[in-house]
Write a structure and sequence with these properties.
This protein is mainly alpha-helical. It has seven helices and no strands. It has helices at 2-33, 41-46, 52-75, 90-132, 151-155, 157-179, 193-204. α3 packs parallel to α6 (157-179). The two termini are 41 Å apart.
């Protein structure tokens, strides 16, 4: 189950990053090519509405950042100043590490709750009443300027991403209590490079 969650988290980040990059590339190419007075082509390009591209990429990068933050907690890629803590005795160091992780979990849990309130007040209350068939009058909520998507859908990343990040803090804290190890990311490591080196060594030998 945990492996499925890990892979889903990675796939969401990768797909959002790749799709946002592709959309930006197409939008820039469209704007650039539309400036050339090429008969037929210019009129066709100008007839294509690409004003939504910037708004969509901003939304996608925000979602990517929130899920990426949770991924960073799991893999240990967040920058931390631990020079003083590492000089402490092992027991005292462990106490500070656990305190920091639990503080992170508490903070992200609060953000998730506040995000849920934000989503509820920006139109999800109206949608929920429609689902249950309630006749209570609740405003539909605002929409985004270009895409005209309900803002509650966009803001949903706050409770979802923060809840996942809170879970990752608790997961790291639990693993630290059991093993005494924290996730560590080697910034010089490139996935697949060691395998390629081993293959080339076998071929050369």
């Amino acid at each position: 189950m945990m492996k499925i969650l890990d892979r889903l988290e990675e796939w969401i980040i990768a797909l959002l990053m790749g799709a946002a990059t592709l959309i930006v590339f197409i939008a820039v190419l469209h704007r650039y090519m539309a400036g050339y007075a090429i008969p037929g082509l210019q009129d066709w390009l100008l007839s294509i509405n690409m004003t939504w591209a910037q708004e969509l990429t901003i939304i996608m990068f925000v979602w990517m950042a929130k899920f990426g933050a949770a991924y960073g907690v799991r893999t240990g890629i967040h920058v931390g100043v631990d020079v003083v803590i590492n000089q402490l005795a092992p027991k005292n160091r462990a106490r500070f590490v656990i305190f920091g992780l639990l503080a992170g979990a508490f903070f992200t849990a609060v953000v998730a709750c506040l995000g849920g309130i934000l989503v509820w007040g920006n139109g999800f209350h109206h949608v929920f009443n429609q689902w249950i068939g309630s006749t209570e009058f609740v405003p539909e909520g605002p929409v985004t300027p270009d895409l005209e998507w309900p803002t509650w859908m966009v803001f949903m990343v706050v409770p979802l991403g923060s809840s996942l990040m809170c879970f990752r803090f608790l997961q790291v804290a639990w693993n630290f209590l059991r093993t005494g190890e924290l996730p560590h990311h080697d910034h010089g490591h490139v996935d697949g490079l060691e395998e390629e080196d081993r293959k080339s060594t076998r071929l050369n030998s």
